[in-house]
Write a structure and sequence with these properties.
This protein is mainly beta and 127 residues long. Helix content is 13%, strand content 45%. A hairpin with a 5-residue loop joins strand 1 and strand 2.
Length: 127
């Protein structure tokens, strides 16, 4: 019986440490050479946080897990314009095989703006 209680307790502890967030893909754009994909997604981490907008650059065919590796922002409690996905508005456009333009809403609260991901140079523009 003691072992069963210990196993249940350990399972509860492990599940409490797992990532409570969920990613929902909003849009995807493949690089002109087809080697990379830029994926814009909404990240929802539960009732006490708002939605965030995140972008990951990944090898084509991959799906991002966890937080975005390229761009992460939220609407700063309603200060920034939001997209249809209820996170701060953003868009992405490939300029070349290794150059991505990310546009995002003025007044967004920025948490990540990587300049280079997997050989792709990222440029940012506030709209």
């Amino acid at each position: 019986m003691k072992h069963a209680v210990a196993i249940v307790g350990l399972a509860a502890l492990v599940s409490a440490c797992s990532d409570p967030c969920a990613n929902t893909v909003v849009s995807k754009a493949d690089s002109p050479d087809g080697l990379h994909s830029a994926i814009l997604f909404q990240r929802d981490c539960g009732a006490i946080t708002g939605y965030s907008t995140q972008i990951s650059v990944v090898a084509k065919g991959e799906t991002p897990t966890g937080s975005g590796n390229t761009f992460r922002a939220d609407d700063d409690h309603g200060a920034a314009r939001v997209g249809e996905w209820e996170g701060s508005w953003a868009s992405m456009t490939w300029l070349a095989n290794d150059r991505l333009l990310v546009r995002y809403a003025r007044k967004s609260r920025i948490f990540e703006q990587a300049a280079n991901v997997d050989g792709v140079q990222i440029t940012y523009k506030v709209d």
